[in-house]
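Dear Dr. L.,

I hope this message finds you well. Following up on our conversation about the binding site, I have prepared a predicted three-dimensional model of the protein together with zinc ion. For your records, I am including the exact sequence and ligand specification that went into the calculation, followed by the structure tokens. Please feel free to forward this to your student if that is useful.
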Amino acid sequence: MALHKDDAVVLRRLDYAETSQVLAFLGRGSGQVRLIAKGIKRGTKKAFATGIDLLERGHLVFTHTEGHGGLGTLTEWKQTEAFLGLRAKLRHLYAGQYAAEITAQLTEEGDPHPELFDGLVTLLRTLSTDTDPLVAVIRFQLVLLTAVGLLPMFDACAACQRTTSARALLHFSAEQGGLVCHDCEPSVVEKRRITAPLAVALTQRNVPTALAAEAFSLLDYAISYAMGRPSRLGPYVVGQL
Ligand SMILES: [Zn+2]
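The resulting structure of the complex is given below.
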């Protein structure tokens, strides 16, 4: 059986039967990889003796096998980066978990995006410091949306494609895929209003800290629309819960 190796980050961990877990990883060269780790909870397997934490990075070794609903098998995991700092503060941890949630939802197996992997590692490193998590998470939202081909249009009307002043682009429609001008807005059903300063900031691709919460919630809205459900952790990132 061929062994595959990759540099990966743990996105998700679910119990499976009594002693096993199903883990979702983002591999730099493999994209999302879902694997079964047999016997992991018994702790008897040397390869997993220290357990596997969410949001840690490591060297992943796995096989593609039939059975287990098409899941491959995790054969080895060696942690290389623990991002310990992000586990010390609740908002930083929520921000990391939010990134894991939206990445797991919007990426597919067998569709690698190395730049997304690099963006995730950069985010987790930033979240391990004292920096305000919101601006870093916004940067990651943009990297993810770009990687999966869903980056909204911010420099023209997404409905009529006309370039216009940012002050005429005061609505956002996830279905249309970007900002919508005041001529098109009445005929667009799914939309939300944004403030003029945010429209300007998005058009210029430069979101100041003062607008970070509004920008985050707009991008989270676009991401939730793409996922087909509201993000579970988004409200925790902006501190609404
Ligand atoms: Zn328009």
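In brief: The helical segments are 90-106, 114-127, 133-147, 196-203, 212-227, 234-237.

With kind regards,
A. P.
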